[in-house]
């Protein structure tokens, strides 16, 4: 069965984006970049990765799921209506319509839990939960793995890692931790 991995950057105080949805406070350069790409190849927009010579094929995921706010980061200024062309892309939204140029993206108002459960039953590689926090809160019980790129920055507010998830403790097992000179720490967990 396929697994859902929440692979995301976050601040020391647990935010994945600023109050306005930006994530430019996170480190985009440093000794962490190469090893993270090697481990999670294909987790950058196709055109961006190829423009800097990064291969997107043969990564751990063949499907990416995200909420509208995460998807919308690439619109309109960045012209990324079809960001992960090398992956099957599913965007959950209840009120937005597909923008021009998004032919490779599936937009749905279907229940995220039911959708992910169905995806897990299909053949293929892993499923990447790209964001955001509200969707992660809805899918918390379906997430099999956490891969957290903890950045050495405090945001003081913004989009929490798991949105407004109600109090519901669940145990996780640390599988791997790697600290980089940049200050970024990759912490990987599996559901216990």
Précis, in short:
The chain is of the alpha/beta class. Helix content is 18%, strand content 29%.
Question: What report would you give on this structure?
Answer:
This protein has one domain: Dihydrofolate Reductase, subunit A. It is 18% helix and 29% strand. It is built from five helices and ten strands, in the order E-E-H-H-E-H-E-E-H-E-H-E-E-E-E. The strands form two sheets. Strands 5-4-3-6-1-7-10-9 form an eight-stranded mixed beta sheet. Strands 2-8 form a two-stranded antiparallel ribbon. It starts with a strand and ends with a strand. The model has no long low-confidence stretch (mean pLDDT 95). InterPro entries: DHFR-like_dom_sf (IPR024072), RibDG_C (IPR002734), Riboflavin_Biosynth_HTPR (IPR050765). It holds the Pfam family RibD_C. It comes from Brachybacterium kimchii.
């Amino acid at each position: 069965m396929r697994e859902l991995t929440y692979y995301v950057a976050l601040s020391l105080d647990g935010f994945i984006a600023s109050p306005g949805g930006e994530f430019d406070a996170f480190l985009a350069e440093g000794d962490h970049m190469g090893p993270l790409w090697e481990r999670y190849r294909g987790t950058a927009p196709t055109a961006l990765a190829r423009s800097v010579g990064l291969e997107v094929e043969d990564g751990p995921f063949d499907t990416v799921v995200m909420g509208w706010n995460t998807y919308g980061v690439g619109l309109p200024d960045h012209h990324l209506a079809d960001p992960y062309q090398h992956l099957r892309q599913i965007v959950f939204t209840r009120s937005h319509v597909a923008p021009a140029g998004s032919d490779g993206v599936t937009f749905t108002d279907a229940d995220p839990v039911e959708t992910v459960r169905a995806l897990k039953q299909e053949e293929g590689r892993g499923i990447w939960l790209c964001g955001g926090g509200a969707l992660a809160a809805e899918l918390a019980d379906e997430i099999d793995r956490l891969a957290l790129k903890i950045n050495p920055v405090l945001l003081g507010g913004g989009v929490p890692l798991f949105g407004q998830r109600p109090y519901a403790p669940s145990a996780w097992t640390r599988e791997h931790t790697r600290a980089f000179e940049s200050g970024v720490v990759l912490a990987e967990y599996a559901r216990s």
